[in-house]
Design a protein that fits this description.
The protein has 234 residues and is mainly α. The protein contains 11 helices and 2 strands, in the order βαβαααααααααα. The protein is elongated.
Length: 234
């Protein structure tokens, strides 16, 4: 604290998250502290929406379209746009931080929420995962993004250079899941025109790698009913 010129004479109370490392640091410093209410609320809301943390020894099953998508580009396309400026080592470290964030949220929810509430949250998380799978596909697939761009030109009447991209949420960024779902709402008509094309003979030939179960979107009214209250907070 002295190194950062945070003199104890100016100190009132230290605001922290609920991590064990932060609590331990407070005990070592022997100062008064309080847990950040905004952070606790974030753990509850984000805990419902984010991708679950990997369990020890768990092998994550890759989507069946992933291998075909990765072959579309010579240079691997990163899942998160904020990683594009990072080195390979930093990307690996960032993945570790995301896993830690997910583990912290799961630990918080296990301690704070009754089982019946947790089951309901898991059901919501499953719905959000469908949109995350879609966003990941379009993020990694150049031909998928190109087709979505054409759909935007016809439905949103924008230039190709003005077409928006779907976003994949990041566990360590507040509101990133909200931003991902909001982008789906903005591109609702464009996505709606993409799926009929996917069912056409031309679309089936172009997108052989996409399994129907991997791109099945939740019903519009279910989605709006689920995300609407969150939009009311912004």
């Amino acid at each position: 604290m002295e190194e950062w010129r945070l003199l104890k004479s100016y100190y009132t109370k230290l605001l922290r998250d609920g991590g064990a490392n932060m609590v331990s640091a407070i005990n070592m410093l022997q100062v008064s502290s309080m847990s950040c209410i905004a952070h606790s609320l974030h753990l509850v809301v984000a805990g419902v929406l984010i991708k679950k943390a990997k369990r020890k020894g768990q092998v994550e099953v890759a989507p069946i379209w992933l291998m075909d998508v990765e072959s579309e580009s010579v240079v691997p396309i990163l899942e998160h746009h904020e990683d594009e400026q990072l080195s390979t080592e930093d990307c690996t470290n960032m993945d570790g931080l995301r896993e830690l964030a997910a583990a912290e949220m799961d630990e918080f929810l296990d301690a704070a929420i009754y089982r019946i509430g947790r089951d309901e949250m898991d059901a919501v998380r499953e719905v959000v995962q469908r949109f995350r799978t879609l966003a990941t596909y379009f993020r990694k697939s150049p031909k998928g993004q190109n087709r979505l761009c054409q759909c935007q030109v016809s439905t949103r009447h924008v230039k190709p250079s003005e077409a928006l991209r779907l976003q994949v949420d990041c566990r360590t960024r507040w509101n990133s899941c909200w931003a991902m779902l909001q982008r789906f709402i903005v591109l609702e008509q464009s996505m709606a025109s993409f799926f009929p094309y996917l069912k056409s003979s031309e679309g089936k030939n172009e997108f052989k790698d996409m399994a129907v179960e991997a791109i099945r979107l939740a019903h519009k009214q279910v989605f709006i009913g689920f995300i609407g209250p969150i939009f009311g907070c912004y």
